[in-house]
Every structure is written in C-alpha cells, then in structure tokens.
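Record type: monomer structure entry
Structure origin: computed from sequence
Chain ID: A
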Amino acid sequence: VQLVESGGGLAQPGGSLRLSCLASGFTFKNYDMSWYRQAPGKERELVSTINSDGGNINFADSMKGRFTISRDNAKKALYLQMNSLKPEDTAVYYCHARRNWGTVSSVYWGQGTQVTVSS
C-alpha cells in the first residue's frame, strides 16, 4: 500500500499550490480520503475529507473558501487546491485513506509533503 503526495513547496502569501496524492495497493474507490496537516510544534489537524464517491465533502473552518478537495477514482488520485495561502498554512500535508467495516477500520497514511508559505 502506498500513498504518495506531491506538489508541496514554497509559495508566497496569497499564492496557490496544488497537492496530489497517488494511491496504490488498495481499492481506492472504496475509501474516504482526507488531507491532514501538521505545523511545527502543533498537533496534526484535519484539513478536509471527501467520501468515497466524492459526494460528501467536509472542511475545517479555517480553510473553507480557500481550499478545494477533489478525487479521481479512475486515476486513484486525491487533490488539494490551495488558494489565498497564508503563512499559517505552513505545514507538512498528509494524505489519509480510511475505510470502515463496522467497528474495524483500515487506515493508510502518506509520507507527507512540505508546504511553506513565506515572502
């Protein structure tokens, strides 16, 4: 199983970045997918979740209106379009996959991609 993030880097305040996560080794279309982030010295926090068919999306309040999550089940890919970036968006961004079977869950994490917002 692999989740491989890409697209991170350095952006200026007000700029944009698009993160991608390519999945392999599991049935991507059956999993709810999320982006998490972890800033230095802080706990990992949920950015956004999109359910398996893309019909239900949730965002953390601080990112609503600036970030867009999407997925392409045919390509086994998850995306995060980040606009109007702020220095406080600086963090390592992680791709996350989850599927529940009753009380049992299958969870996978990517290795993370660094996003730095600075002038």
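Annotation 1: The chain has no helices and eleven strands.
Annotation 2: The mean pLDDT is 95.
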